[in-house]
Design a protein that fits this description.
The protein is mostly helical. Helices cover 73% and strands 0% of the residues. The chain has one domain: Serine Threonine Protein Phosphatase 5, Tetratricopeptide repeat (Alpha Horseshoe), CATH 1.25.40. Helix 2 packs parallel to helix 4, helix 4 runs antiparallel to helix 5 and helix 6 runs parallel beside helix 8.
Amino acid sequence: MLHLFNYVRSSFFLHFFLIKKNECNCPHDAESAFTHIMKPTLYTWNAIITAHINNERCEKALALYYRMQEKGFIPNAFIFSNALRACVNLRSLYHGNFVYSKILRFGVERDSVIKNILISMFFSNVGV
């Protein structure tokens, strides 16, 4: 399938491919598609992070979350909620606190999805 990327470098096409591979539980193919996207957007970062979380690869999802920020991207509510989901799945209050501090910094703590995940993280003995 990768030979296809030599012909089509359209970010839209590769993003669509990434989403479809996510739906098929193929995180390796999704990651391969992601690496071929020349200018990833927040939408594509969110898609690859979600792909890893949905396939129980939460450590990789968090690594991508941190890498995204190193590349200069500012997370939105969708990405924050996925990063928190990864923290809950890993039972990592340590990483959850880092994500939470960013949520407060960027003012998205009022998002209802984020509120629910925060409640789950802080009140279910995560990391204990």
